[in-house]
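Researcher: Go.
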Amino acid sequence: MVQSKKILLLFYLLFIFTFLSCESLKTSKPIMPIKEYEKMIAGRLDADYVGTARCLSACHSHDKIKQDFEASTMGAQLSKKSGMPIVDCESCHGPGSLAIEGITPEKVEQDRKEGKQTACRYETLIDYKNLPAQALSLICLKCHTANATFNLHNWNAGMHAINDVSCSDCHRVHEGPDLRVKPRKMLDLCYTCHQEIKAEFSLPSHHPTHEKKVFCTDCHDTHGTLNDKSLKEDSIKETCTRCHAEKEGPFIYEHAENSENCTTCHSPHGSVNNNLLTVQVPFLCLQCHAGHRTSTASSQLERKGAFYTRCTDCHSQIHGTDIPSASGSGAFTQ
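Model: Structure:
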């Protein structure tokens, strides 16, 4: 009896330990104390906000950064003409009183005459170079949330965020008038990380991305989705039929393996085979279907020929059809 109680107690303790361990795994934890994290993305707590005009006049009055920023979408919001002063330098860089302390117009003018650029104390601002990717993105998400201009409600659960990619890895705030990546420049940007996809697009049969006719964002949402591979649509077939509508169906006679997943037969980015096929015909078809003779000829050579002929020479409507074959069955021949 005593032994049984000990065993029950042991199982009870083991259950409690396992339950608490699982609960701790499901609980989100900050990467550092919350107050330290807030200080990291908000800037020095002992500094004061001084306004964009003072920041730019003190350090950047003769700087190219100022000119590029004023030409950007965010810079336009700083303009008095816009009537929307919702963004300023300190929104991203933190309060700047310590950074420009001791810098006067006279000092700036003297440095200009001496051929020097007046430098502010950057170390008192938010340390962008040493911020983790999630903190960098959080600075942007303070404004660009789901109820703002951009649809970013899936960002934190997206593959880019999970793999430590931040907003500034793709968007250069100070480098030009348009903060969005232009489609014709997008491919080179994506290739900086996705080298294996670059190799696939260089294969003989490929989607015309190098030709600037198809872009990565035609299929993928770079800011994240709930779908696999950040696809814009709920399934692979729905994504493919955005362009290949004639393959969508529904058909009376459907090729079952192709009804949901086009990648059963096709490589989405590139292939050494025609039509982006993963394996050349007829060997692709023979992976699922048994071969058959194409004629009643008795010669050994012609019997072998059945297995080395393109199936699509006869079964031309391979994705599906509404017309039965000559035999009355759905053989995808017409």
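Model: Residues 2-26 form the longest helix (25 residues).
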